[in-house]
Specification:
The chain is an alpha+beta fold. It has a domain at 29-100: Nucleic acid-binding proteins (OB fold (Dihydrolipoamide Acetyltransferase, E2P), Beta Barrel). The chain contains two helices and six strands, in the order αββββββα. The chain has a five-stranded mixed barrel with strand order 1-2-3-6-5. It is globular. The chain starts with a helix and ends with a helix.
């Protein structure tokens, strides 16, 4: 009986741990409109109209339209999705979408 209770507690702890990790991972992604990049910091405007800046990590991976690019290649007004480095306020990856892709999504929804 004790071994079953112990096994149940172990499984419940594992599920709680995994669930918390998944929820935290969701909080590590931010999306908004690219404003600028200067001195290693990327600034964007979130969906509430608030500007936010984050440091780009040294090995940040940046893609523009699915192809590797540099931070300097990002154009003001494109939609960016930022994935943050765990437990730091740095950007690990930036995925930029052109307005064409955004317009296509709107057309697809109609």
């Amino acid at each position: 009986m004790f071994s079953r209770v112990l096994a149940l507690v172990a499984v419940a702890t594992f599920v709680l741990f995994v669930g918390t990790s998944v929820a935290k991972a969701a909080d590590d992604t931010k999306k908004g409109t690219f404003v600028s990049v200067k001195d290693g910091k990327l600034t964007f405007t979130d969906d509430k109209g608030k500007d936010a800046s984050f440091a780009l990590s040294k090995d940040a991976k940046i893609t523009c339209d699915g192809k590797a690019c540099k931070a300097e290649d990002l154009k003001a007004g494109v939609i960016v999705t930022l994935t943050m480095v765990k437990d730091k306020d740095e950007i690990a990856t930036v995925v930029a979408e052109t307005k064409k892709e955004k317009d296509k999504e709107v057309k697809d929804k109609k």
